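Record filed here:
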Amino acid sequence: MKFKLTAILLVLTIGWATAQQKKWTLEECVAYAVENNLSVEQFELDLENVKIDKKDALGDLLPSLNASASASSNTGFSINPTNNLPTNSTAFNFNGSITAGITLYNGLQNIRAVNRAKMAAISSQYRLDNLKDDIRLNVADAYLQILSNKEALKVSKAQYAVTEQDLKRTKELVESGVVPKGDLLEIEATAANQEQQIVNNESLVLISRINLAQLLQITDYENFDVTDGAFEIPLSDVLNNSPKSIFAKALEFRNDIKFSKSNVELAEKDLQIAKGAYAPTLSGFFQYGSRYSDVTEIPDSNGVYYTPSFKDQLWVFDGISYGVQLSVPIFNGWGTRNNVTRSKITLEKSRLQFEQDKLDLETTINQAYVDVTTFYKSYVAAEKTLEARRLAFEYSKERFDVGLMNSFEYSQAQSRVDNAEADVVRTKYAYIFRLKILEFYFGIPITLN
């Protein structure tokens, strides 16, 4: 029994440790964020409300059916409801009815309301999908920021490792009297500065991890991390397309454009509904009812008066009524006309917003296209600069080792290499993110493959 308990605890411990060591991929982060984002959950509830509105609109096309009943007792003079004769006694009365009604015509407002409700459900879905698109981009940005900070941290640690070797060698040279002690102090200052940079980069990694965890609604910041690895510049064919062709394709599938266009269609339907109020309303009704009173007397076959039972009176005094009703709008304080005018204004605003959204999308794509080419050139230039800085540093190192360069000049050469390496990391991930944005507008899912 003790062995079994130990084995169970061991399995649980291993499982817990594995869970703590989990490192998230970009695809996992995106999927988790879309699934657990609070705004997504709110928009999904809004979508459920829109679906209920659709049921309401369908229900307005159906006949209404209502039942009513009333019971009363009165003492003194009253009119017997069963025979309309005066009576002066204590009486108990009961009335019951079932009424059905249906709108036969009201300017097609009900039918158009159903169509509008269907369109509203589609529009709400576009709105939800557009939110998910924004979340995907935000998660990708936060994810790549972690990778950029991690790579910068690796670079700073590697730089510090080289400086430690220089520091050790310089100490030996100072002790042997080859170089002055000032050179050692200069390199020690460089090492201290690099240590500070390592601390700063570690803080940036932690902060960027927290930012991504918050996007994912994860509170265990300490154990949250993403997959490690050096991500090289990805290959992409998106730049083989012109900004105009990317924009043309984006118009076909972008959810923000679909949502904006659906708002125009909803405004058009609202205008039709508002105009429908000018038309007459024709409705039909049908009613079945009956009544009972305990003071009612009717003659039997022998001419003797008696009070029928409750059941008998319901059958005797029942009746039906049916008919149609026509209501013609003539004047309602310009209410209908004002509603139509408001709907026209809303329609025009939605059309203008749709055109503005298309212009914004085109501007965003053009900017993304320029950013991709610009940051790629910046990355290539940073790589060339780094290569040149490294060659210059190697030359400086050779001169420093033989005493032809002082420690200050040597530290400056090393600082230029450090800055060049930092520029490579910065421009690399800036280019990758903007490339992913451009691919996203072209319909390519966000991945790092």
The radius of gyration is 41 Å. The CA atoms of residues 368 and 438 lie 6 Å apart. The beta strands are 64-74, 77-79, 86-88, 91-105, 281-293, 298-299, 305-306, 319-327. The mean pLDDT is 87.
